[in-house]
Amino acid sequence: MTSLQGKTLLVTGASSGIGQALCELLVERGANVLGVTRRPSALSEDVSPILADLTQREQVSSIFQGLGKIDGLVNCAGTAYLSRIIDGNPADWEEMWRVNVMALALCCQLSLKHFPASGGRIVNVSSMSGHRVPPSGGFYAPTKFAVRAITDALRAELKSVKSPIQVACVSPGFVDTPLLDSYFLGREQSLAQTRAAMKMLEPADVAWAVLTILEAPAHVEIGDILMRSVEQQM
Ligand SMILES: NC(=O)c1ccc[n+]([C@@H]2O[C@H](COP(=O)([O-])OP(=O)(O)OC[C@H]3O[C@@H](n4cnc5c(N)ncnc54)[C@H](OP(=O)(O)O)[C@@H]3O)[C@@H](O)[C@H]2O)c1
To answer: I want to staple 26 with a disulfide (CB 3.0 to 4.6 A). Which of 31, 34, 43, 222 is the partner?
Structure first.
């Protein structure tokens, strides 16, 4: 098992939901945690803030200016709107694309030179919506398919240059976080029905999956973890 004691981990989306739960687990493991957010007051205790709006490419770059060595990067930040292809607002598509895809890819790229020669791990939070397209999900699923493709592309590129850095993703189904409020905006009744119909995953469940990847023995490279609540059908 790989110990995270004293290791430095950079986590985007650290101020809420899955990212926040992960930061708490990492702090418990004795890691130094750097949390990227627009809302530093929302970070958990002992998480060092790095301020950035991930829709802005220069602000994504600024995360890495003056950053020292890191042993891991977890791209957890994300936005979700129900924004259909037939009539959705392209501004929603653009925000999702910038945060879920562009910022994630750029964080992957810019993080590489901060890893020690011995390597480290990158974990990207994708979704079950990166594996199948929910009929009412609009432009969100395309961004999560892209996360999975970026993860696979990066892994192949790292292997081709014999880099010891590993890359993985996790693909959860519904997780009960504030993200669902924007995803179900205007469909609050549908969110209430979904919540009543099933117990969703908790943020800590997904944080545990990320931790499993980060703590895997050094010779074990996990590619993806698909996970749903036992009560979620598809
Ligand atoms: N909840 C689910 O059902 C579910 C299912 C599958 C996958 N996921 C994925 O899991 C990841 C985490 O989602 P969550 O459910 O934990 O959501 P959440 O509770 O809403 O948290 C989203 C995080 O992303 C950050 N973020 C959003 N836009 C940002 C921006 N422009 N600049 C900087 N940070 C930004 C937020 O930070 P600030 O607002 O503080 O800046 C916040 O920390 C996302 O990638 C999501 O797609 C979620």
So the answer is: 31
Helix or strand holding residue 36 (H, E) = strand 32-37
Domain, as residue range, for 14: 8-227
* pLDDT tens, per residue, the chain with 234 residues: 999 999 999 999 999 999 999 999 999 999 999 999 999 999 999 999 999 999 999 999 999 999 999 999 999 999 999 999 999 999 999 999 999 999 999 999 999 999 999 999 999 999 999 999 999 889 999 999 999 999 999 999 999 999 999 999 999 999 999 999 999 988 899 999 999 999 999 999 999 999 999 999 999 999 999 999 999 988
Q: Which amino acids bring their CB within 6 angstroms of ligand 1?
A: 13-19, 37-39, 42, 52-55, 76-80, 99, 125, 127, 172, 174-175, 177-180, 203
Residue 168, in any domain of the structure: yes
Q: Is 3 among the domain residues?
A: no
Which amino acid would we find at residue 99? V
Q: What is the CATH number of the domain that holds 135?
A: 3.40.50.720
CB environment 22-48: b (16+ within 10 A), e (fewer): bbbbbbebebbbbbbbeeeeebbeebe
Residue 180 CA, ligand 1 centroid: distance in Å = 10
How remote is the C-alpha of 114 from its chain's centroid? 19
Q: Which member of 64, 93, 140, 174 is catalytic?
A: 140
183 belongs to the catalytic site? no
H or E element at residue 214: helix 203-215
- On whether residue 113 sits in a domain, the answer given is yes
| pTM recorded for the entire structure | 0.98
